[in-house]
Design goal:
The chain is an alpha+beta fold and about 450 residues long. It is elongated, with a radius of gyration of 36 Å. It contains 16 helices and 13 strands. The longest helix is centred in the C-terminal third of the chain and has 48 residues. About 55% of the residues lie in helices and about 20% in strands.
Amino acid sequence: EELVDDLPEEELESYTTRIGNQGFLTPGESENWAIITVGLSPFSKRTRTAEEIIEGLRADTDSLEVFSKIVYYIDAGPPVGRPITLRAVGSDDSLRVQLADSVETFLLSLDGVKDIDRNDKLGKEQVEVNINYDKLSRLGLTVADVAQNLRIAYDGEVVTRVRYGDEDVDFRVILQKRSRRRLTHLKDLPIPNAQGRLIPLKDVASLKIGAGPTSVYHYDGERAIRITGDVTKGKSTPVEATKAVEDHFNLHRDWPGMRFVIGGEAEQTQESMASLFRAFAVAVIGIYFLLILLFNSLTQPIMVMMAIPFGIIGVIIAFALHGENLGFLSVMGIVGLTGVVVNDSLVLVNHINKLKRQRPDEKTIILVAQGSSDRLRAVILTTLTTVAGLLPLAYGIGGSDPFIAPMALALGYGLLFATPLTLILVPSLYVIQDDIGRVFVWIGRIFKRRKEV
């Protein structure tokens, strides 16, 4: 709390501390857990990002000695889970724990992976009763007999109910408090067998004292351990780290009965990207059919849509120069770019078609040259005004939004890169299309003459 409280006023808005649980990280309670939730000021009001603030705090907390582990987690944006989320699923308890330990060790060895955490944390101390089934059978006892007597001794059992006036009072039989606190009394706990003999618990079972699990987790009905972690931006990605784990472990050979279930940001990213690519395909098909209705042609829409791949090239170059990753929002910007980038081509081709209808005897190359010069100013001004509105958002001029900025960067640079190529490529393709059309007309005339002969 003291370290958090020392953060600059322009960065820190509030913080809350909970002792005894971990809040939303891992449900459960334990006396040796705590979580501090820090609320930062808006991104536009501070100079450091959340990652930079965490690294500053990490440098201070690494010198603290009384903690076994300190894990940092950034909760921002849509709830997609932690960047790395792996579940080791299987029915063999010891093998599952060994696999989780090996995965944790391997993740820590990867460059850029940090803040590894697991949900199989140990909680309060417990006494584990390990039954010797051979002795149990020889002495005429069952597991149910042991469980029932232990439950009555330590949890009690209501044996009767007496009514006092208008109130019913339950009478519960239970071991005295001082007896329940001593392990020797538990070892000597008498359990009646089928013949009525009292058998001490120590004759049929051994006791083991240790920390027990806080919760029992399942996935599709099987016991599971969830391993989570974070990555350092620029050094690794959730998908790369998850793929490295899958390639490193041969579960079929070395861990029979175990399996991995991928979740968190890697899973959500794959699903989101797949849905975005489907949306991209639908957008392209929709644009194509709308252009067919406009031009009454099957080939001219393809000519107009040639600007789309050049816009995508511009996005890739821009993100490479800025050192940014093509994430979910940037790909969403590319989907939006498919509709915006065809506008310049659309205006240009439509105007050339209009000139061609007005002057059908004029050479195509002359009409294309005139149409391109007529629409040059409109195309450039349309692009510049759009880019001028997007780039301030992309660079945070006058206020920034870290979630919308990648989308604006993709739209702005995609349009900026595609427009000059459109002004050169589309007129050239128009002339090439006209030449190819005249070749087919000439071939058709030859076949017609031969047929007449």
